[in-house]
Amino acid sequence: MNPNPNTNDFPLLSHLLNHLDPQTHPPLPAELDQSLLTQFPHLNHPSVLSSLARHASTLNVTPTLSLLRTLRASEKKLLEAYAESVKGVVEEVSEGVVGVLKKAESEEVERVDLSGSHLRILPEAFGKIRGLVVLNLSQNQLEVIPDSIAGLQRLVELDVSSNVLESLPDSIGLLVNLKIFNVSANKLTALPESIALCRSLVELDASFNNLMCLPTNMGFGLVNLEKLLIHLNKIRFLPASIGEMKSLRHLDVHFNELHGLPQSIGKLTNLEYLNVSSNFSDMTELPETLGDLVNLRELDLSNNQIRALPYSFGRLEKLTKLNLDQNPIIVPPIEVVNQGAEAVKEFMAKWWLDLIEEAQQKSMSETQNQQAQTGWLAWGASLLNNVAEVSESVAEYFGAKKAPRDPWLDQQL
């Protein structure tokens, strides 16, 4: 038995006390608080908190009982109170969902907002609301999205952020009019290959998940995508097809495990914002094609292991914001980096020109050497040929038979 109990021993009571009086009672550690909300998903519902507060006011600390026993008894009563009060919440939520479905039977429903409604299940019948344009299901406890979602052919905006989704249905690819899709703050480990069929997508937010990779052919389909947010994941490589997202303007891949960027990144000539910061020891170099991002205005490379910028960096004429903090940078020198983006671009442009000039001089020198060597060989061949011709002429002059050609001379010629 722990003689010195702390808030971790009585999470429900601690959470309630912090809600009632945050000045006096400190909050639970973030990890424990998240675990508590997962276990008790309706804990922050107003009616549940109100019910728990009423029960808390009836708790008595009896002198004849030890403090530890009293706290345990209080925690147990709060658990019972939660179970009782949550019944009403579930009924309330169910009524709300049923209300939406009934309304859709008699009239066209274009917008549905069920955010923060403590939903655990989305009825298959939602796929029958044919006129739905905007659907907000964020901040719930949804574990799956039904396949019937494919029935929402007019859907333009879908928000399922802050749920507990571990996967998305393949039928998501049938939402051909979807333009904005927010699936951030879930538990996804992958996106379905069918996401590439959502060709109308303009904005995709899949940040704060457990993504390990992106679909291989994703870029070939999402040619209209302008904003891609995939930060706070575990992605190691971006697919080469990302270079086909010719409309992309904003790309955020910070806090991943990227080992680099594909050469095809240079094809994103409309890109204005790129954040590849905080990939730490995994990110060590950048492709030369980075210099092809002619419209890039803001670039964050902080918290990586980059030692040198690519030779082409000086071509980023529109770049105005550059963050290279926390890198073992050597090229350009740190004193240049500290002067800002313009100084870095100027240094890299000059360095590039110097390298070109050096390469040209080396090439000229090699050409001259080659010409000199070629000239000597030509002179030698001509000399040997003349010797052979003179030999034949002398023999003919003295009336002798034509002398046989010398095999050695033939070989040299």
TrEMBL record:
Q: Where is the Disease resistance R13L4/SHOC-2-like LRR domain?
A: 264-327
- Write the record's keywords in alphabetical order, separated by commas: Leucine-rich repeat, Repeat
GO molecular-function terms, A-Z: protein serine/threonine kinase activity
This protein's superkingdom? Eukaryota
- InterPro entries associated with the record: Leu-rich_rpt, Leu-rich_rpt_typical-subtyp, LRR-SigEffector_domain, LRR_dom_sf, LRR_R13L4/SHOC2-like
Q: Which Gene3D superfamilies match?
A: Ribonuclease Inhibitor
Offer one Pfam family short name for this entry: LRR_14
Family membership, please give it: Belongs to the SHOC2 family.
Main function: Leucine-rich repeat protein that likely mediates protein interactions, possibly in the context of signal transduction.
Q: What is this protein called?
A: Protein lap1
Organism, scientific name: Glycine soja
